[in-house]
Specification:
Shape: globular
Largest sheet: 6 strands, antiparallel
CATH architecture: 4-Layer Sandwich
CATH class: Alpha Beta
Strand content: 25-35%
Number of strands: 6
Number of domains: 1
Structural class: alpha+beta
């Protein structure tokens, strides 16, 4: 992929995997408050958590969530039936991607995890 704006610092991380811990909207909210703190990133707004609740296919039920950061944002997508999640961290500030993966793996009790930082 060609870097269209080399003068703009961008750091991205995608983490996907299967989790084992129980999850509700409060767990999602708490995770999106704790992850930025663990990575020394600052949020400037409230965590937004959506649960479509029966508006789509049953196997896609879960949560879509976002927290805005001073330096961009973090999105989390959770499939509760499949016990699968996808996390996207996008910042204009460097952060420790390995620490983000470890924090996510430990918090969610993840059994199978893939990630890519770029």
């Amino acid at each position: 992929m060609r870097d269209l704006a080399p003068d703009i610092t961008r750091r991205r991380l995608l983490v996907e995997g299967f989790y084992t811990t129980p999850v509700d909207a409060d767990d999602v909210r708490r995770f999106l408050l704790d992850l930025p703190a663990a990575l020394d990133l600052r949020s400037y707004g409230e965590v937004t958590v959506h649960a479509p609740g029966g508006q789509g296919r049953d196997d896609n039920e879960g949560f879509d969530a976002f927290v805005p950061l001073i330096d961009s944002g973090i999105s989390l997508y959770v499939w509760t039936v499949r016990r699968f999640l996808a996390l996207v961290v996008f910042t204009c500030k460097s952060f420790d991607a390995d620490a983000a993966v470890s924090f996510t793996r430990d918090r969610w009790g993840m059994t199978d995890v893939e990630h890519r930082a770029f």
